[in-house]
Amino acid sequence: MFILDLCKALESSKIDYCLVGGVAVGLHGAIRGTLDIDIVVALNEKTFASAEAVLARLGLEPRLPLRAKELYQFREEYLKRRNLVAWGFIDPKQPQRQVDIILTHSPSELSPITLTVHGRKLKVASIEGLIRMKKKSGRPQDREDVKALQELLRR
To answer: What is the pLDDT of residues 59-74, one digit of tens each?
Structure first.
């Protein structure tokens, strides 16, 4: 399972990460379809470079011609002027394998928890962390995710 391979590779490289996005919403128990895996990593150049290397070892390539050093150096400009909130990667041989590194948050902001999936422990943004993150985006799908996550909290 690709998500398990991804998390194992991130952990083996000692990358501070957590799962976010539709996958995280689903792991918490809300019904949510998604193709890509969204992660956040520590917001520093070393971690960006390490994550880029891990994804390359897994066969993924960046969708845009951006390298870790450049992305980190100009992250604020890309966020503010180009609305680039995710650094996307795709496996050209298996296009269903996609990872987006979200550039707007770090794991520590999202109060990650550990969930066990197929016997593997995965770091996932907490429900409260996901709600805070998704409220900031304002996208229609994120508003729906917030409703679903709030419902999980009421149970």
So the answer is: 999 999 999 999 999 9
Q: Considering the domain boundaries, does residue 132 fall inside one?
A: yes
Please state whether the predicted TM-score (pTM) of the whole model is above 0.85.
Answer: yes
CA 31 to CA 79: how far, in whole Å? 29
Residue 148's contacts (CB-CB under 8 Å, 6 or more residues apart) are: 25, 30, 31, 32
Work out how many domains the chain is built from and give that number: 1
Our measurement of the distance from residue 101's CA atom to the centroid of its chain's CA atoms, rounded to an integer in Å, reads 5
In CATH, what number is assigned to the domain containing residue 135?
Answer: 3.30.460.40
* pLDDT tens figures, 91-112: 999 999 999 999 999 999 999 9
Its domain, for residue 121, covers: 2-144
Strands 86-90 and 98-102: antiparallel
With respect to residue 52, please indicate whether it lies within any of the assigned structural domains.
yes
